[in-house]
Amino acid sequence: MSEPLKENIPKVEKAIKAQKLVGVKGMNDILPPDSARWEWLEQQVRALMARYAYRNVRLPILEPTALFVRGLGEVTDIVEKEMYSFEDRLNGEQLTLRPEGTAGLVRAVVEHNLLYEGGKRLYYMGPMFRHERPQRGRYRQFHQVGAEVLGFGGAEVDAELILLANDLWKVLSLKDVRLELNSLGQPAERQAHRAALIAHLEKHSDVLDEEAMRRLHSNPLRILDTKNPAMQSVVEAAPRLLDFLGAASLAHFNAVKAILDANGVTYSINPRLVRGMDYYNLTVFEFITTSLGSQGTICGGGRYDYLIEQIGGKPTPAVGWALGVERVLELIKEQGEALPNLAPDVYAIIPETAALPVAMQLLQSLRACGVSAQMHAGSGDSMGSMKSQFKKADASGARFALVFGAEELAQGLVAVKSLRDGEGAQRTEPLNTVAAWAHSLQSAL
Ligand code: ATP
Ligand code: MG
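A: This is the predicted complex of the input protein with adenosine-5'-triphosphate.
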Protein backbone atom coordinates (compact mmCIF):
# COMPACT_ATOMS: atom_id res chain seq x y z
CA MET A 1 0.00 0.00 0.00
CA SER A 2 1.41 3.44 -0.88
CA GLU A 3 2.15 5.90 1.88
CA PRO A 4 -0.49 8.58 1.13
CA LEU A 5 -3.25 5.98 1.31
CA LYS A 6 -1.99 4.68 4.62
CA GLU A 7 -2.08 8.22 5.98
CA ASN A 8 -5.66 8.55 4.86
CA ILE A 9 -6.95 5.71 6.97
CA PRO A 10 -7.40 7.62 10.26
CA LYS A 11 -9.13 10.41 8.35
CA VAL A 12 -11.57 7.99 6.78
CA GLU A 13 -12.26 6.38 10.14
CA LYS A 14 -12.94 9.77 11.64
CA ALA A 15 -15.30 10.64 8.82
CA ILE A 16 -17.15 7.36 9.24
CA LYS A 17 -17.57 8.04 12.93
CA ALA A 18 -18.69 11.62 12.36
CA GLN A 19 -21.37 10.50 9.92
CA LYS A 20 -22.43 7.70 12.23
CA LEU A 21 -22.22 5.04 9.57
CA VAL A 22 -23.78 2.29 11.57
CA GLY A 23 -26.15 -0.44 10.42
CA VAL A 24 -29.85 0.21 9.94
CA LYS A 25 -31.92 -0.24 13.10
CA GLY A 26 -33.41 -3.71 13.38
CA MET A 27 -31.03 -5.16 10.77
CA ASN A 28 -28.34 -7.36 12.24
CA ASP A 29 -24.83 -8.32 11.25
CA ILE A 30 -24.36 -12.05 11.63
CA LEU A 31 -20.76 -12.61 12.63
CA PRO A 32 -18.54 -15.49 13.77
CA PRO A 33 -18.90 -17.47 15.93
CA ASP A 34 -22.72 -17.08 15.70
CA SER A 35 -22.65 -17.42 11.91
CA ALA A 36 -21.49 -21.04 12.42
CA ARG A 37 -24.85 -21.80 13.96
CA TRP A 38 -26.57 -20.24 10.94
CA GLU A 39 -24.52 -22.34 8.54
CA TRP A 40 -25.22 -25.46 10.55
CA LEU A 41 -28.95 -24.77 10.55
CA GLU A 42 -28.92 -24.13 6.80
CA GLN A 43 -27.13 -27.45 6.24
CA GLN A 44 -29.70 -29.30 8.32
CA VAL A 45 -32.52 -27.65 6.37
CA ARG A 46 -30.99 -28.53 2.99
CA ALA A 47 -30.41 -32.15 4.00
CA LEU A 48 -33.94 -32.55 5.33
CA MET A 49 -35.54 -30.89 2.29
CA ALA A 50 -33.61 -33.30 0.07
CA ARG A 51 -34.98 -36.23 2.09
CA TYR A 52 -38.52 -34.98 1.37
CA ALA A 53 -37.62 -34.28 -2.28
CA TYR A 54 -38.28 -30.53 -2.03
CA ARG A 55 -36.29 -28.42 -4.50
CA ASN A 56 -34.64 -25.10 -3.79
CA VAL A 57 -35.64 -21.77 -5.36
CA ARG A 58 -33.76 -18.47 -5.08
CA LEU A 59 -35.86 -15.44 -5.77
CA PRO A 60 -35.31 -11.68 -5.93
CA ILE A 61 -35.47 -9.62 -2.77
CA LEU A 62 -37.15 -6.75 -4.62
CA GLU A 63 -40.58 -7.29 -6.14
CA PRO A 64 -43.22 -4.98 -7.59
CA THR A 65 -45.21 -3.44 -4.71
CA ALA A 66 -48.45 -4.50 -6.41
CA LEU A 67 -47.52 -8.17 -5.92
CA PHE A 68 -47.78 -7.89 -2.14
CA VAL A 69 -50.77 -5.56 -2.12
CA ARG A 70 -52.65 -7.97 -4.34
CA GLY A 71 -51.27 -11.16 -2.83
CA LEU A 72 -51.29 -10.45 0.90
CA GLY A 73 -54.39 -8.27 1.06
CA GLU A 74 -54.65 -4.52 1.47
CA VAL A 75 -55.75 -4.55 5.10
CA THR A 76 -53.10 -6.90 6.48
CA ASP A 77 -50.55 -5.65 9.03
CA ILE A 78 -47.78 -6.18 6.54
CA VAL A 79 -49.28 -4.17 3.68
CA GLU A 80 -50.79 -1.51 5.92
CA LYS A 81 -47.71 -0.61 7.90
CA GLU A 82 -44.72 -2.95 7.61
CA MET A 83 -43.51 -2.80 4.02
CA TYR A 84 -40.33 -1.11 2.83
CA SER A 85 -41.76 0.33 -0.37
CA PHE A 86 -40.21 2.97 -2.56
CA GLU A 87 -40.19 4.37 -6.03
CA ASP A 88 -37.20 3.52 -8.21
CA ARG A 89 -35.93 7.01 -8.94
CA LEU A 90 -34.54 5.96 -12.31
CA ASN A 91 -37.73 4.66 -13.85
CA GLY A 92 -40.54 5.36 -11.40
CA GLU A 93 -41.32 1.68 -10.70
CA GLN A 94 -43.02 0.98 -7.37
CA LEU A 95 -40.88 -1.60 -5.57
CA THR A 96 -40.94 -3.38 -2.20
CA LEU A 97 -38.34 -5.30 -0.25
CA ARG A 98 -40.06 -8.65 0.13
CA PRO A 99 -41.77 -8.99 3.53
CA GLU A 100 -42.38 -12.71 3.00
CA GLY A 101 -41.60 -15.38 0.43
CA THR A 102 -44.86 -16.90 -0.73
CA ALA A 103 -46.10 -14.12 -2.99
CA GLY A 104 -42.78 -13.92 -4.86
CA LEU A 105 -42.62 -17.69 -5.20
CA VAL A 106 -46.12 -17.79 -6.67
CA ARG A 107 -45.20 -14.94 -9.01
CA ALA A 108 -42.19 -16.91 -10.23
CA VAL A 109 -44.12 -20.16 -10.58
CA VAL A 110 -46.77 -18.43 -12.72
CA GLU A 111 -44.25 -16.41 -14.71
CA HIS A 112 -42.20 -19.50 -15.62
CA ASN A 113 -45.20 -21.79 -15.98
CA LEU A 114 -43.52 -24.19 -13.53
CA LEU A 115 -46.66 -26.21 -12.98
CA TYR A 116 -47.21 -27.21 -16.60
CA GLU A 117 -46.21 -30.79 -15.90
CA GLY A 118 -47.80 -31.17 -12.48
CA GLY A 119 -47.33 -30.08 -8.90
CA LYS A 120 -44.10 -28.90 -7.30
CA ARG A 121 -42.53 -29.12 -3.88
CA LEU A 122 -40.24 -26.14 -3.32
CA TYR A 123 -38.31 -24.42 -0.55
CA TYR A 124 -36.39 -21.19 -0.05
CA MET A 125 -34.29 -19.47 2.57
CA GLY A 126 -33.38 -15.83 2.82
CA PRO A 127 -33.87 -12.37 4.24
CA MET A 128 -37.29 -10.73 4.58
CA PHE A 129 -38.01 -7.11 5.52
CA ARG A 130 -40.72 -5.65 7.72
CA HIS A 131 -40.77 -2.25 9.36
CA GLU A 132 -41.70 -3.37 12.88
CA ARG A 133 -40.58 -2.28 16.32
CA PRO A 134 -37.32 -4.19 16.85
CA GLN A 135 -37.22 -6.38 19.96
CA ARG A 136 -36.08 -9.87 20.86
CA GLY A 137 -37.26 -12.20 18.07
CA ARG A 138 -38.59 -9.32 15.96
CA TYR A 139 -36.31 -7.53 13.55
CA ARG A 140 -36.63 -5.39 10.43
CA GLN A 141 -34.43 -7.67 8.40
CA PHE A 142 -35.04 -11.23 9.45
CA HIS A 143 -34.71 -14.59 7.75
CA GLN A 144 -37.15 -17.25 6.82
CA VAL A 145 -37.02 -20.79 5.58
CA GLY A 146 -40.16 -21.56 3.62
CA ALA A 147 -41.57 -24.76 2.18
CA GLU A 148 -44.38 -24.64 -0.37
CA VAL A 149 -46.28 -27.33 -2.24
CA LEU A 150 -48.15 -26.13 -5.32
CA GLY A 151 -50.61 -28.00 -7.49
CA PHE A 152 -52.02 -30.53 -5.01
CA GLY A 153 -55.31 -30.08 -3.20
CA GLY A 154 -55.27 -33.10 -0.90
CA ALA A 155 -54.93 -33.11 2.87
CA GLU A 156 -51.89 -35.36 2.54
CA VAL A 157 -49.64 -32.51 1.44
CA ASP A 158 -50.85 -30.32 4.33
CA ALA A 159 -49.87 -33.21 6.62
CA GLU A 160 -46.58 -33.83 4.81
CA LEU A 161 -45.56 -30.20 5.34
CA ILE A 162 -46.38 -30.44 9.03
CA LEU A 163 -44.40 -33.69 9.31
CA LEU A 164 -41.49 -32.00 7.55
CA ALA A 165 -41.47 -29.08 10.00
CA ASN A 166 -41.85 -31.47 12.89
CA ASP A 167 -38.85 -33.47 11.64
CA LEU A 168 -36.84 -30.29 11.44
CA TRP A 169 -37.42 -29.62 15.15
CA LYS A 170 -36.17 -33.16 15.80
CA VAL A 171 -33.07 -32.71 13.66
CA LEU A 172 -32.35 -29.43 15.46
CA SER A 173 -33.06 -31.07 18.85
CA LEU A 174 -35.63 -28.39 19.67
CA LYS A 175 -37.65 -29.05 22.75
CA ASP A 176 -40.79 -27.31 23.91
CA VAL A 177 -42.43 -26.75 20.52
CA ARG A 178 -46.15 -27.32 20.24
CA LEU A 179 -48.41 -27.39 17.20
CA GLU A 180 -51.71 -25.52 16.94
CA LEU A 181 -54.13 -26.30 14.13
CA ASN A 182 -57.25 -24.71 12.76
CA SER A 183 -59.29 -24.69 9.60
CA LEU A 184 -60.39 -21.43 8.00
CA GLY A 185 -62.77 -23.25 5.66
CA GLN A 186 -63.67 -21.86 2.26
CA PRO A 187 -64.61 -18.28 1.32
CA ALA A 188 -68.38 -18.88 1.46
CA GLU A 189 -68.08 -20.43 4.93
CA ARG A 190 -65.94 -17.54 6.07
CA GLN A 191 -68.50 -15.12 4.68
CA ALA A 192 -71.28 -16.65 6.79
CA HIS A 193 -69.06 -16.71 9.86
CA ARG A 194 -67.95 -13.16 9.21
CA ALA A 195 -71.49 -11.82 9.34
CA ALA A 196 -72.11 -13.61 12.65
CA LEU A 197 -68.76 -12.42 13.98
CA ILE A 198 -69.38 -8.78 13.08
CA ALA A 199 -72.82 -8.94 14.73
CA HIS A 200 -71.26 -10.39 17.90
CA LEU A 201 -68.45 -7.82 18.01
CA GLU A 202 -70.83 -4.93 17.34
CA LYS A 203 -72.83 -6.01 20.36
CA HIS A 204 -69.68 -5.56 22.45
CA SER A 205 -68.27 -2.51 20.70
CA ASP A 206 -67.76 -0.81 24.08
CA VAL A 207 -64.79 -3.10 24.86
CA LEU A 208 -63.23 -3.11 21.40
CA ASP A 209 -59.98 -1.17 21.14
CA GLU A 210 -59.20 1.28 18.39
CA GLU A 211 -57.51 -1.29 16.17
CA ALA A 212 -60.44 -3.70 16.51
CA MET A 213 -62.90 -0.94 15.63
CA ARG A 214 -60.89 -0.17 12.56
CA ARG A 215 -60.87 -3.81 11.52
CA LEU A 216 -64.49 -4.54 12.39
CA HIS A 217 -65.66 -4.30 8.80
CA SER A 218 -62.41 -4.75 6.90
CA ASN A 219 -60.83 -7.80 8.57
CA PRO A 220 -62.86 -8.93 11.60
CA LEU A 221 -61.22 -12.38 11.68
CA ARG A 222 -57.95 -10.73 12.66
CA ILE A 223 -59.61 -9.27 15.76
CA LEU A 224 -59.72 -12.81 17.14
CA ASP A 225 -55.93 -12.70 17.17
CA THR A 226 -55.84 -9.76 19.60
CA LYS A 227 -53.45 -9.78 22.53
CA ASN A 228 -55.46 -7.09 24.38
CA PRO A 229 -56.50 -8.66 27.73
CA ALA A 230 -59.58 -6.42 27.95
CA MET A 231 -60.98 -8.02 24.81
CA GLN A 232 -60.28 -11.65 25.70
CA SER A 233 -63.72 -12.56 27.02
CA VAL A 234 -65.52 -11.06 24.02
CA VAL A 235 -63.18 -12.84 21.66
CA GLU A 236 -63.56 -16.13 23.50
CA ALA A 237 -67.34 -15.93 23.28
CA ALA A 238 -67.26 -15.09 19.55
CA PRO A 239 -68.84 -17.48 17.05
CA ARG A 240 -66.29 -20.10 15.99
CA LEU A 241 -65.40 -20.42 12.34
CA LEU A 242 -65.07 -24.18 12.85
CA ASP A 243 -68.82 -24.33 13.51
CA PHE A 244 -69.52 -22.82 10.09
CA LEU A 245 -67.56 -25.39 8.10
CA GLY A 246 -69.37 -27.58 5.60
CA ALA A 247 -68.83 -31.31 5.10
CA ALA A 248 -66.01 -30.98 2.55
CA SER A 249 -63.98 -28.58 4.68
CA LEU A 250 -64.46 -30.75 7.75
CA ALA A 251 -63.44 -33.86 5.83
CA HIS A 252 -60.24 -32.12 4.72
CA PHE A 253 -59.48 -31.06 8.27
CA ASN A 254 -60.17 -34.54 9.64
CA ALA A 255 -57.94 -36.12 7.00
CA VAL A 256 -55.03 -33.91 8.05
CA LYS A 257 -55.60 -34.79 11.70
CA ALA A 258 -55.82 -38.53 10.94
CA ILE A 259 -52.41 -38.50 9.23
CA LEU A 260 -50.86 -36.54 12.09
CA ASP A 261 -52.41 -38.94 14.62
CA ALA A 262 -51.08 -41.97 12.73
CA ASN A 263 -47.61 -40.41 12.81
CA GLY A 264 -47.69 -39.61 16.50
CA VAL A 265 -47.66 -35.84 15.98
CA THR A 266 -49.43 -34.13 18.85
CA TYR A 267 -51.34 -30.91 18.29
CA SER A 268 -54.11 -28.84 19.76
CA ILE A 269 -57.00 -27.29 17.88
CA ASN A 270 -57.08 -23.53 18.31
CA PRO A 271 -60.35 -22.27 16.80
CA ARG A 272 -59.07 -18.69 17.07
CA LEU A 273 -55.90 -19.30 15.14
CA VAL A 274 -55.94 -16.99 12.13
CA ARG A 275 -52.96 -15.97 10.10
CA GLY A 276 -51.60 -12.56 9.21
CA MET A 277 -52.15 -12.86 5.48
CA ASP A 278 -55.53 -12.85 3.78
CA TYR A 279 -54.67 -15.63 1.39
CA TYR A 280 -55.22 -18.66 3.62
CA ASN A 281 -58.11 -21.14 3.51
CA LEU A 282 -58.74 -24.60 5.04
CA THR A 283 -55.77 -25.78 7.13
CA VAL A 284 -53.76 -23.21 9.07
CA PHE A 285 -51.17 -24.02 11.71
CA GLU A 286 -48.47 -22.55 13.91
CA PHE A 287 -45.58 -24.06 15.84
CA ILE A 288 -45.19 -22.22 19.11
CA THR A 289 -42.72 -22.31 21.97
CA THR A 290 -43.17 -20.86 25.43
CA SER A 291 -39.40 -20.36 25.78
CA LEU A 292 -39.16 -17.13 23.80
CA GLY A 293 -41.63 -14.86 25.55
CA SER A 294 -44.17 -13.11 23.39
CA GLN A 295 -42.29 -13.82 20.13
CA GLY A 296 -43.00 -17.53 20.54
CA THR A 297 -44.32 -18.43 17.09
CA ILE A 298 -41.41 -20.02 15.28
CA CYS A 299 -43.28 -21.26 12.22
CA GLY A 300 -46.64 -20.62 10.60
CA GLY A 301 -48.43 -21.74 7.50
CA GLY A 302 -51.48 -23.08 5.82
CA ARG A 303 -53.32 -23.68 2.61
CA TYR A 304 -53.72 -20.88 0.07
CA ASP A 305 -55.79 -22.29 -2.77
CA TYR A 306 -56.83 -18.90 -4.16
CA LEU A 307 -53.54 -17.02 -4.20
CA ILE A 308 -52.20 -18.34 -7.48
CA GLU A 309 -55.33 -17.23 -9.33
CA GLN A 310 -55.22 -13.88 -7.54
CA ILE A 311 -51.69 -13.32 -8.80
CA GLY A 312 -52.72 -14.12 -12.36
CA GLY A 313 -52.22 -17.87 -12.71
CA LYS A 314 -54.71 -20.63 -13.39
CA PRO A 315 -56.64 -21.66 -10.26
CA THR A 316 -54.24 -24.02 -8.47
CA PRO A 317 -54.29 -25.32 -4.91
CA ALA A 318 -51.23 -24.74 -2.72
CA VAL A 319 -50.03 -25.01 0.85
CA GLY A 320 -46.89 -23.95 2.70
CA TRP A 321 -45.19 -22.66 5.80
CA ALA A 322 -42.42 -20.29 6.78
CA LEU A 323 -40.24 -20.36 9.85
CA GLY A 324 -38.33 -17.52 11.48
CA VAL A 325 -34.63 -18.43 11.50
CA GLU A 326 -33.70 -15.92 14.24
CA ARG A 327 -36.36 -17.31 16.55
CA VAL A 328 -35.35 -20.92 15.92
CA LEU A 329 -31.69 -20.06 16.57
CA GLU A 330 -32.66 -18.15 19.70
CA LEU A 331 -34.48 -21.24 20.92
CA ILE A 332 -31.47 -23.44 20.18
CA LYS A 333 -29.31 -21.03 22.19
CA GLU A 334 -31.87 -20.85 24.98
CA GLN A 335 -31.73 -24.62 25.26
CA GLY A 336 -27.98 -24.46 25.77
CA GLU A 337 -26.82 -26.12 22.58
CA ALA A 338 -23.07 -25.62 22.15
CA LEU A 339 -21.81 -23.69 19.15
CA PRO A 340 -20.45 -25.88 16.36
CA ASN A 341 -16.67 -26.26 16.65
CA LEU A 342 -14.92 -23.68 14.48
CA ALA A 343 -11.32 -24.51 15.39
CA PRO A 344 -8.99 -25.39 12.53
CA ASP A 345 -7.25 -28.78 12.67
CA VAL A 346 -3.80 -27.30 12.44
CA TYR A 347 -2.15 -23.90 12.91
CA ALA A 348 0.97 -23.21 10.87
CA ILE A 349 3.79 -21.46 12.72
CA ILE A 350 6.29 -19.84 10.39
CA PRO A 351 9.39 -18.43 12.15
CA GLU A 352 10.86 -16.69 9.08
CA THR A 353 9.23 -15.23 5.99
CA ALA A 354 11.70 -17.25 3.88
CA ALA A 355 9.76 -20.39 4.79
CA LEU A 356 6.47 -19.04 3.41
CA PRO A 357 6.57 -20.51 -0.13
CA VAL A 358 7.27 -24.06 1.06
CA ALA A 359 4.94 -23.78 4.06
CA MET A 360 2.05 -22.48 1.99
CA GLN A 361 2.52 -25.15 -0.63
CA LEU A 362 2.33 -27.78 2.10
CA LEU A 363 -0.77 -26.21 3.62
CA GLN A 364 -2.44 -26.27 0.20
CA SER A 365 -1.74 -30.01 -0.02
CA LEU A 366 -3.15 -30.58 3.47
CA ARG A 367 -6.32 -28.62 2.63
CA ALA A 368 -6.68 -30.66 -0.54
CA CYS A 369 -6.67 -33.75 1.72
CA GLY A 370 -9.48 -32.24 3.84
CA VAL A 371 -7.42 -30.90 6.75
CA SER A 372 -8.49 -27.46 7.95
CA ALA A 373 -5.37 -25.34 8.20
CA GLN A 374 -4.93 -21.79 9.50
CA MET A 375 -1.70 -20.04 8.60
CA HIS A 376 -0.02 -17.53 10.84
CA ALA A 377 0.04 -14.15 9.13
CA GLY A 378 2.69 -11.59 9.96
CA SER A 379 3.00 -7.83 9.71
CA GLY A 380 4.68 -7.78 6.32
CA ASP A 381 8.26 -7.38 7.53
CA SER A 382 8.29 -10.15 10.08
CA MET A 383 6.23 -13.14 11.09
CA GLY A 384 6.39 -12.22 14.79
CA SER A 385 8.10 -13.99 17.68
CA MET A 386 7.68 -17.73 18.22
CA LYS A 387 6.06 -16.92 21.54
CA SER A 388 3.37 -14.75 19.98
CA GLN A 389 2.82 -17.28 17.19
CA PHE A 390 2.29 -20.08 19.69
CA LYS A 391 -0.11 -17.84 21.61
CA LYS A 392 -2.17 -17.34 18.44
CA ALA A 393 -2.00 -21.07 17.72
CA ASP A 394 -3.43 -21.83 21.17
CA ALA A 395 -6.13 -19.20 20.79
CA SER A 396 -7.21 -20.69 17.46
CA GLY A 397 -8.22 -23.88 19.23
CA ALA A 398 -6.24 -25.98 16.74
CA ARG A 399 -5.19 -29.41 17.91
CA PHE A 400 -1.75 -29.33 16.30
CA ALA A 401 0.83 -26.68 15.49
CA LEU A 402 2.98 -27.23 12.44
CA VAL A 403 6.32 -25.49 12.92
CA PHE A 404 8.11 -24.65 9.70
CA GLY A 405 11.59 -24.10 11.18
CA ALA A 406 14.52 -23.53 8.81
CA GLU A 407 16.49 -26.46 10.21
CA GLU A 408 13.71 -29.01 9.67
CA LEU A 409 12.83 -27.60 6.25
CA ALA A 410 16.43 -28.03 5.18
CA GLN A 411 16.00 -31.74 5.88
CA GLY A 412 12.63 -31.90 4.11
CA LEU A 413 10.75 -32.09 7.40
CA VAL A 414 8.17 -30.12 9.39
CA ALA A 415 7.67 -30.30 13.17
CA VAL A 416 4.23 -31.33 14.44
CA LYS A 417 3.42 -30.33 18.01
CA SER A 418 0.29 -31.19 19.90
CA LEU A 419 -1.38 -28.15 21.45
CA ARG A 420 -3.33 -30.23 23.95
CA ASP A 421 -1.83 -31.03 27.32
CA GLY A 422 -0.24 -34.41 27.79
CA GLU A 423 -0.55 -35.50 24.20
CA GLY A 424 2.94 -36.64 23.41
CA ALA A 425 5.95 -34.66 22.40
CA GLN A 426 6.85 -32.90 19.19
CA ARG A 427 7.49 -35.14 16.21
CA THR A 428 8.60 -34.47 12.66
CA GLU A 429 6.96 -35.43 9.41
CA PRO A 430 8.51 -35.56 5.95
CA LEU A 431 7.15 -32.88 3.61
CA ASN A 432 6.76 -35.32 0.75
CA THR A 433 4.33 -37.74 2.35
CA VAL A 434 1.63 -35.19 3.03
CA ALA A 435 -1.33 -37.36 2.14
CA ALA A 436 -0.34 -40.10 4.57
CA TRP A 437 0.19 -37.80 7.51
CA ALA A 438 -2.87 -35.69 6.66
CA HIS A 439 -4.70 -38.95 7.10
CA SER A 440 -2.94 -39.64 10.40
CA LEU A 441 -3.76 -36.10 11.59
CA GLN A 442 -7.43 -36.53 10.74
CA SER A 443 -7.72 -39.83 12.53
CA ALA A 444 -6.11 -38.20 15.57
CA LEU A 445 -8.58 -35.27 15.50
P1 ATP B 1 -45.94 -12.39 14.36
O1 ATP B 1 -47.33 -12.66 14.78
O2 ATP B 1 -44.91 -12.80 15.39
O3 ATP B 1 -45.74 -10.99 13.88
P2 ATP B 1 -46.34 -13.24 11.67
O4 ATP B 1 -47.66 -13.89 11.68
O5 ATP B 1 -46.24 -11.83 11.20
O6 ATP B 1 -45.65 -13.36 13.12
P3 ATP B 1 -45.42 -14.84 9.46
O7 ATP B 1 -45.68 -13.80 8.45
O8 ATP B 1 -46.32 -16.00 9.55
O9 ATP B 1 -45.30 -14.15 10.90
O10 ATP B 1 -43.92 -15.34 9.30
C1 ATP B 1 -43.51 -16.66 9.63
C2 ATP B 1 -42.49 -16.65 10.74
O11 ATP B 1 -41.48 -15.69 10.51
C3 ATP B 1 -43.05 -16.24 12.09
O12 ATP B 1 -43.66 -17.34 12.72
C4 ATP B 1 -41.82 -15.80 12.82
O13 ATP B 1 -41.12 -16.92 13.34
C5 ATP B 1 -40.99 -15.17 11.75
N1 ATP B 1 -41.11 -13.71 11.76
C6 ATP B 1 -42.14 -12.94 11.31
N2 ATP B 1 -41.88 -11.63 11.46
C7 ATP B 1 -40.63 -11.57 12.03
C8 ATP B 1 -39.78 -10.50 12.42
N3 ATP B 1 -40.13 -9.23 12.24
N4 ATP B 1 -38.58 -10.80 12.97
C9 ATP B 1 -38.19 -12.08 13.14
N5 ATP B 1 -38.95 -13.13 12.78
C10 ATP B 1 -40.15 -12.88 12.23
MG1 MG C 1 -46.14 -9.98 12.12
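The chain has two domains: 25-185+245-334, 346-444. The mean pLDDT is 92.
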